[in-house]
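Chapter review: from sequence to fold.
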Amino acid sequence: MPHPRQTSPTAAFAGEPPLPVGVIESDYPDKFGVPRQPGLAPAAKAALVLVPPFDDPLAVRGLAAFSHLWLTFIFHKTPPLDDNGFTPLVRPPRLGGNRKVGVFASRSPNRPNRLGLSLVTLERVDTQGGVRLTLGGCDLVDQTPVIDIKPYLPWAEARPDARAGFAPAPPPEVEVAFYPAARDELARRDDGASLQALIEQVLRQDPRPAYRHGRKPTARVYGVRLRDVEVKFRALEEKRATLLAVVAIEPLPGRA
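The token string follows.
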């Protein structure tokens, strides 16, 4: 009989995956452009809708007394392990996408079990006809399955003196500007002000591939999907600094 430590990980975790307790509804239809950490785009709208049998209001009794939540979720847009198996090294964007570190020394979505952990603000608990949690600072793609919820305890979990390895400070931000056509589109929308704030907060993080950061801008136009639109932008050089300019804001097919 093999020693427990010699049992293969695949055998140890064989069987049904954990059941989601709920699903995220968010302003991020796609993973491109999603802030790499929670709280960086507070204008993003999101909610966690609990699914049966976990949508019993009794399951969230007392939750409204907490301001923040830990969400354990599945990176459902990240493919599961293929026949090549486990990859121990990843390329964090904070290191320019060129240097490698161990997957367990990173917060990369490319994880062995695709599990993620996110700290979000709890803005409202609605128990009319189920359970719906309105969230702030969410960094999760729309339809992300959430497998657990826990309240955040600042006295136990806030550690200001903790070391942060290769990410000791928030990532630098870039300037964002809007072409006239993009501003006109925002002016026509009822949610134009909040959408503009969301666009600015997302683009300030520079969602372009990490290897493009710090390089001379090109004429390439990128597209990031937010709410029901595709935001098209390009990089410009302004006083030797990168500026991301929103060229156009176009409705997404089927979501206009």
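Two observations follow directly from the output. Helices lie at 9-12, 154-157, 180-188, 192-203. The longest strand covers residues 115-126.
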